[in-house]
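Work Package 3 committed the consortium to producing structural models of liganded targets before the mid-term review. Because experimental data for this complex are still outstanding, the team generated a predictive model from sequence and the ligand definition alone, so that downstream docking and mutagenesis planning could proceed in parallel. The input record is reproduced below exactly as it was submitted to the modelling pipeline, together with the SMILES string for pyridoxal-5'-phosphate.
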Amino acid sequence: MTRVFNFSAGPAMLPETVLTRARDEMLDWHGSGMSIMEVSHRGKLFLSVAEKAEQDLRDLLNIPDDYDVLFMQGGATLLFSLIPMNFAAGKVAQYIQTGSWSKKSIAAAGKLCSVEVVADSSGTGYDRAPAQDSWDTVPDSAYLHYCMNETIHGVEFPFVPQGMDCPLITDCSSTILSRPMPVNEFGLIYAGAQKNIGPAGLTLVIVRKDLLELCPDSIPDVLNLSKVAASDSMLNTPPTYSWYLAGLVFEWLKEQGGLEEMERRNRRKAQRLYAAIDGSDFYKNPVQLDSRSLMNIPFILADSSLDAEFVRQAEEAGLSGLKGHRSVGGMRASIYNAMPEAGIEALVSFMAEFERNSA
Ligand SMILES: Cc1ncc(COP(=O)(O)O)c(C=O)c1O
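The resulting structure, written out as tokens with the ligand in place, is given here.
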């Protein structure tokens, strides 16, 4: 068996020990004679998995008791609509536009509430997280939404907005669990699972309980975050296997030393790759230094006619998923928690060799 280093933005690489454990537990989960994916979501067996996963996540992120954790479906994309539906009907919501994902969230919200884009970095090619003192905020809004890490453009907010007079909501899909974060400074945090949490099919929502009182009764129950919370995310059948696997990832993260340790590793990995890019005229990262993502590192080749050859040779060298998003081109290395430092070393060596051979 040969496993490659997978730099895909998501679904992304999972820790090998998690996959091995899932394989070992596949046919007979803890002596039950069944796979965990075969058991009722309302039975004792699955409930023990669900509760442990939630507790481990709470421990990792230090989630206060006045927050609910929801294990949902529909992806981060569904949250783009659920957030305005639940919290902003008939009101104004503020949005920061820093790339493709926040742009999509703005389009979705625009169908459901009045949207005020208070900062927008499209004019500079989505190359930065706009400083808070440049935002044109409005009073009396339902919330302020931003995407903490733009997966396609490789732009990450280096700060948490301060002093807002409304709840702060963030799309954390590609940065959650990569480092500690002050959950208590947010009204709602959400993330699709398929990057740093587990397999696709699961969407995580962390929401301050008092906000759930605002969810209108008129919306369908499965879209109503208050009803989902009241049912412990079991209003209908949840994605049980993804939930179980996310739980294994949370256990793995705790064994590794938690999010402080992940941050140390992730900073080392990102610095190594940015240094290789910055140290050469052959590669370039277009993002402003203070807004560079730790998780998604786009880079362009000085000669874009070499792009296809770069990707082909990289695949041959066991480095998969490096082609940039179709909307921006170039390359992108997504280096989530499960990417080992050896993967970065292999990529950096390959890049140097490709540059030498192309001279
Ligand atoms: C930052 C961000 N938000 C939202 C999404 C959409 O997520 P989903 O496919 O889970 O709906 C993605 C997907 O890659 C993303 O990276």
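Reviewers should note the following from the model. The radius of gyration is 21 Å. These observations will guide the Year 2 experiments.
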